[in-house]
Each structure stands twice: as C-alpha cells, then as structure tokens.
Amino acid sequence: MRAYRNEIRRDEIRETAMMKRLAAGAAVLALAAGLSGCIIIASEGGERTVVVDSAPLAAPAYVSLYTDAVADPKRPAEEVARDPLRHPAEILAFAQLAPGDKVADVRPGAGYFTRLFSDVVGPTGRVYAFVPERTMARENPMADALVAAYPNVTRVNGLLDAMTYDQPLDMVFMSQEYHDFHIPGFNTDVARMNAAVFAALKPGGRYILIDHQAAAGTGISAVQTLHRIEGDYLKREVEAAGFVFEGESAAVANPADDHSLNVFDAAIRGKTDQFVYRFRKPG
C-alpha cells in the first residue's frame, strides 16, 4: 500500500512539473506570436504611444530551455509561488538569453533570476552574482549559497559605478534595483555605473532593466519615498551612456497601479506597475 501511495505521489509530482512547463511555454509562444517582437511604450508629453519593435525575440528553440528552467524542481517553493506575478519565462524570452551567455545579475538577493539564468546559460555560460560593497555583509551569504548550488555562478563584489568582470558579458541584468542606486545612501554615480555596464558588455550586448514605474514627470524624486523611478527618465540616463533603447515588455505591467503608493505598501506590494526595458550596446 505504501509503495502504491508513493507511486501516485511521484505521478502527481511529474504531472505538476509538466503543467508548469506547458503553462510557461504557452506564455512565451503567445508573446512571440502576439507581439512579433515586443512592444515599445514611448511617452512624450505624458501621452503613451504604442510602437511595434522590429528586434527579434530569442530563438524559438530556446523556449523549452526557458520552460524547463521555470519548472526546475531545485527552485525554492517561495520563489515558484511568485511566478504568476513575475512571469519569468516571458522575461527570459524578452532578455534573449541563450546557452553559453555570460551574464551579470546585479544585486541578485536570494537568487530568483540567478537560478533561472544558470539553467539557461548552461555549463558553457557563466552567471556573475554582483553584490555591491555597501551591502555585501548582508548579501554575500545569499550569493555564496547560489555559488555552492550552481557550478556556473560566481560571486563578484565591487563598486556599482566601477564594476568589472573577468570577461566581456552578453547581458547585464537589474531587477527592481536601479532606482535604489539613486538613493544617496548608496553613494553611487549612476552615470558612471551605466558607463561601467557599457564597458563590461560585448558589442551587441544587452542591458535589461526592470523597475517600479513612477508617475509621469516625477523623474527620480520618488526613489527613496516610494521606491519608484519614472521609466522615461531612466531611459534617457541609459541612452546617455551610449546604449540604444530596443524595446519594452509589458509582462509585469499593471495599469491599475496609479503610481502613488510606496511599493512596500500592502495594497500594492508584488503588484506594482513595472517596466521591462532592453537596451543594446551598438556593435
């Protein structure tokens, strides 16, 4: 009887994993079929205009890699529970992540995206968990746990506005972090940080930024009070470093968010209106 129950349990686990892969795969395919690339939301004078981005999505052959990464049983349950709000398969597709890529995950925290990146880039790739010197006493142990669990992950410490890596990168990624680096306590020159990212990337490399949207026209005035940044302001800063803006994903957008609440407010936490931008280094 016990063996029978164990077999049923194994079947249930396999079925759950399959359903996760199918759901994630359907989401990525819908993104590719429905958008034919991605959607750029350009704001001028407070008005939002929809423009189709001609840049291609990641190769369809990688869809299974993204869905398998999302369904990886090594992922902590608390991270899997956040997937319906964070749409990881769509983010991986928009980021155009590929096997063999060399990637920096800036301030990775507990490693939500680091784990996914590790699975996709595989043994010929490398994921650098970049922990700023200011927060390394608290965050290095989390990065070291990722290094211990994933052979292709390396922890790097340094100054945000002087970050360097031991090889040219294909992608630098920041999720919900960029606004923080404008807070005076981080003592970071954001223009120099963007220049350092530019220098760290290969020609054609990608700079992926996810952050909480602030009200139009507010720039960086809410970075400390609400932990939000105006997307258009961020875009201008990054372009000033030499990057070309390539497109935006609406995977984690929420039009119901009026941008007035602190992102940690219980009424909006985990459900903020977020932009996902892809910039590219020319070349």
What key attributes describe this structure?
9 helices; about 280 residues; globular; about 35% helix; two-stranded antiparallel ribbon; 7-stranded mixed sheet; single chain; about 25% strand; alpha/beta; Rossmann fold; disordered N terminus
Main β-sheet, in a few words? 7 strands, mixed
Percent of sequence in beta strands: 15-25%
Number of helices: 9
Find the CATH superfamily of the domain at 83-279.
Answer: Vaccinia Virus protein VP39
CATH hierarchy class name of the domain at 83-279: Alpha Beta
Decide which structural class fits the backbone.
alpha/beta
Low-confidence parts, pLDDT < 50 over ≥5 residues? 2-20, 22-56
Q: Helix content range of the residues, please?
A: 25-40%
Distance between the termini: 64 Å
Largest beta sheet: strand ordering: 5-4-3-6-7-9-8
Report on the structure:
It comes from Brevundimonas mediterranea. This protein has nine helices and nine strands. It is of the alpha/beta class and 283 residues long. Helix 8 links the parallel strand 6 and strand 7 (201-212). It has a domain at 83-279: Rossmann fold (3-Layer(aba) Sandwich). Helix content is 36%, strand content 23%.
